[in-house]
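Example record for the data management plan.
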Amino acid sequence: MAQALRPNTAGSLLATDGRPHPLQDALTAVTLVLGAVVFITAMFHSLHLLSSWAGLVGIATGAYGLWISETTRERFGLILGLGASGIGFFLGMAHGGLFGGLW
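Corresponding structural encoding:
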């Protein structure tokens, strides 16, 4: 009964089921980093290319991560990153889009 009193701390920070999920953890980290970069760069009109393309990649990465995620903690981080990527992507599109100013 001692096992029931102590939580299982082995495994990943994001895996609450006690098993490691390296692909899901990597996708969560990439989505969160892209979301932060996109959200910050979307505030500047001249960085619309970076914010729109990185936002598009962040949305795709987050969507795939949600599709294969296994725990609630992974989904929480993915939703945060997806939200920031989506907002930054749409602001980047409003400021000039994916190819604005290149042609």
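Summary line stored alongside the record: DSSP finds four helices and no strands in the chain.
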